[in-house]
Specification:
Elements (H helix, E strand, L loop, with lengths): L2 H19 L3 E3 L2 E5 L3 E9 L7 E12 L5 H5 L8 E4 L13 E2 L2 E5 L4 H21 L4 H8 L5 H11 L6
Antiparallel strand pairs: 1-2, 2-3, 3-4, 4-5, 4-7, 6-7
Helix pairs in contact: 1-3
Length: 168
């Protein structure tokens, strides 16, 4: 299998069904979950330098505040709607390094073991990313989770104040 085929198959056989079971909808490479006042968004980003034999990619994960979105976006959120966007590493513990992770996300070559890669991806998502996202049940939870993140915490508070979701 090529690296691209390994990635495509892992997304198809592991990530799509897992996120669907967790209540996420899918449009292209963007998964979203409606949480009332906001959406949780997970975006699979492939890098432009990829080839069939070597694929680098990451997950941009964050929230989109409904108050900032138009009617069309409320039905099908897009990555451009995101208010807070962090890479998957922000949801992983420091010890979650493995041979399929690099400084910019994940990397696969045509020699990668698909089963081993899926196992590592499962540990990342089910052990770290999804449990962290499940704690986001309200806008207050979002402030608690992202408020301490440089730049993004203040950005979230500003957008919430501008949209009268947070008192001054």
């Amino acid at each position: 299998m090529t690296a691209k085929e390994i990635q495509t198959e892992a997304v198809k056989t592991y990530l799509k069904p897992t996120l669907k079971n967790q209540g996420y909808s899918l449009n292209g490479q963007i998964w979203w979950k409606d949480k009332g006042d906001f959406f949780i968004i997970i975006n699979l980003q492939n890098f432009s330098w990829n080839s069939k034999e070597c694929v680098d990619f990451c997950f941009n994960i964050g929230i989109a505040l409904k108050a900032t979105m138009d009617e069309k976006s409320l039905k099908k959120p897009a990555y451009r709607n995101i208010t807070i966007s962090l890479r998957e590493e922000s949801y992983l513990s420091a010890d979650r390094l493995h041979k399929y992770r690099n400084s910019s996300g994940y990397t696969l070559t045509s020699t990668a073991d698909k089963g081993e890669f899926e196992t590592e991806l499962k540990k990342d998502f089910e052990g770290h990313i999804l449990p962290s996202l499940e704690k986001l049940k309200s806008l207050s939870d979002c402030i608690e989770r992202f408020g301490i993140v440089p730049f993004w915490g203040e950005h979230l508070r500003k957008v919430m104040r501008d949209n009268k979701l947070l008192a001054d």
